[in-house]
Amino acid sequence: MKFGQVENPGEIDFTLPPTAAETLALLKAHKNDEPFEAYVGCAKWNKADLKGFYPRGTKDELSYYANQFNSIELNATFYNSPSKEQVATWRDKTAEGFKFFPKIPQSISHYGRLLNSDEKVKAFVDATVNFEDRLGMAFLQMHDNYQPKDFDRLQSFLEGFPKGYPLALEVRNTAWFTDDEIQQKLVALLEKTDTTNVLVDTAGRRDMLHMRLTTPVAFVRYVGANHPSDYDRLLDWVERIKAWKKAGLQKLYFFIHQNVEVESPLLAAHFIEALNKALGTTLKIPNKGGKEGGNQPSLF
């Protein structure tokens, strides 16, 4: 079963938890007059997953995807750390303003469990800095069996991570969220190391909606349930982001997944349209599938 997937999503209470008071205080402390930045995308660009999204005859999937969206959660780097040449190839297929958000390789996070990772981290960073102005933020996703007993190992990793390279963290083990002392300790570490705290909205793991931001950046990984409730859930997020922006949020990184990924562009278009209307952003509303300007498929 996919992470966070449930058999009956209609039985889940998808209400967003209230924003933590500490989050509002952090946003207030960082409030400035800089323009608000919003990046919304999917997790993959390949045609096999996003069936129906690409017009017939599309030869370069990334180039087309980057014409429709302004960002991608780059899961490909999780399986294999890319070469400098591969990164340059990806970069050159996109236009100015597009951002990649590469995932730290599993050889570091899952297999190595953050031990003896200096050379692997260096190789990953040395390669991905070649995204140049297309680099958004890397994120480290830990296995759900990585527990707080290994906090010192996580601390050493984050404190030793190259300074100036933007990084976000997603922890999954329930112990990180059920023990308030542990959560406070984690948040303090993330704030100290300028690491963004990833929020995950998925049906089976509501505890991962901790609503604790550690930087003035909201990095949200939204997993739809291939259920009609997905629509309203996204509208609730638009209202929450609107409130955070008013409080001082500077950047939004919002990535939409589905258990069946073919519907991800449809949800993304719905979300972007609502975000533009509520916040005054001007993100392009992506083509939902098939010929541009033609009949678009419905979500359900």
**Radius of gyration based on Cα positions:** 19 Å
Q: What composes the largest sheet?
A: 6 strands, parallel
Return residue spans where pLDDT drops below 50 for at least 5 consecutive residues. Answer: 290-300
- Tally of DSSP helical segments: 11
- Work out the number of β strands: 9
Number of domain modules: 1
The helix/strand order is: HEHEHHEHHEHEHHEEEHEH
Overall structural class, as computed from helix and strand content, comes to alpha/beta
Key terms:
TIM Barrel; three-stranded parallel sheet; 14% strand; disordered C terminus
Give the structure's gist in a few sentences:
The chain is an alpha/beta fold and 300 residues long. It has helices spanning 21-30, 61-68, 76-79, 84-92, 106-111, 118-128, 151-160, 175-178, 180-192, 229-247, 264-279, and strands at residues 37-42, 71-74, 99-102, 138-141, 167-170, 196-197, 199-201, 217-224, 251-258. Helix content is 37%, strand content 14%.
List the helices and strands and how they pair.
Blueprint: H1 21-30, E1 37-42, H2 61-68, E2 71-74, H3 76-79, H4 84-92, E3 99-102, H5 106-111, H6 118-128, E4 138-141, H7 151-160, E5 167-170, H8 175-178, H9 180-192, E6 196-197, E7 199-201, E8 217-224, H10 229-247, E9 251-258, H11 264-279
Parallel strand pairs: 1-2, 1-9, 2-3, 4-5, 5-6, 7-8, 8-9
How would you describe this protein?
The two termini are 22 Å apart. The relative contact order is 0.18. This protein is of the alpha/beta class and 300 residues long. Helix 10 packs parallel to helix 11 (264-279). 37% of the residues lie in helices and 14% in strands. It has a six-stranded parallel sheet. Strands 4-5-6 form a three-stranded parallel sheet, with helices on one face. The chain has a single domain (14-279), classed as TIM Barrel (Alpha-Beta Barrel).
